[in-house]
Amino acid sequence: MKFCKKIDWIYKRNLFFGKGIGELPELTSENIRSLNDTILNPKNKMNFSVSMDAGEQYVIFAYPSSLEDVEQITYVQMNDTEMAPNFTKSLVEVEGMNGYQAIEYKVYTYKTDVPVASKVTFEIII
Q: Which are the contacts of 42, defined by CB distance < 8 A and separation ≥ 6?
């Protein structure tokens, strides 16, 4: 008698985040997936940080829309816990790894009018 082990595949999605100079890139699946940093399998109530270096102008982060909206964004250097309303939320279909089916992501962006003069760190809680 042969026994087969059933394998259940669990597909996990990334939280993507990054920063840059100049204008915000178009919010497409490809551009979101190309952001410099990722966190595998984000969850509600988790926190992470994104820092803009001197000369940069924007930050972007994106995670599956099945998770809650952002709970809080803190501008660390100013101890300002009320930054969330300054971020713009969009919904974008983002493909999974190897072209796996796209799902809806919440994409948050923040852009300054001029490059920041010194490091700006945002502590984000989903």
A: 13, 14, 15, 63, 64, 67, 126
Cα distance between residue 69 and residue 71, in whole Å: 6
CB-CB contact of 32 with 105 (8 Å): yes
pLDDT tens digits for 98-118? 878 999 999 999 999 999 999
* CA–CA gap between residue 73 and residue 80 (Å, rounded): 8
Whether the pLDDT of residue 21 is over 70: the answer is: yes
pTM: 0.90
- Dihedral angle, C-alpha 124, 47, 123, 26, nearest 10 °: -40
Q: How is 60-87 classified by DSSP, letter by letter?
A: EEEEETTSPPP-EEEEGGGTB-B-GGGS
Distance CA 58, CA 111 (A): 4
Q: Which of 26, 19, 18, 40 is nearest to 96 (CA)?
A: 40
Which are the contacts of 80, defined by CB distance < 8 A and separation ≥ 6?
74
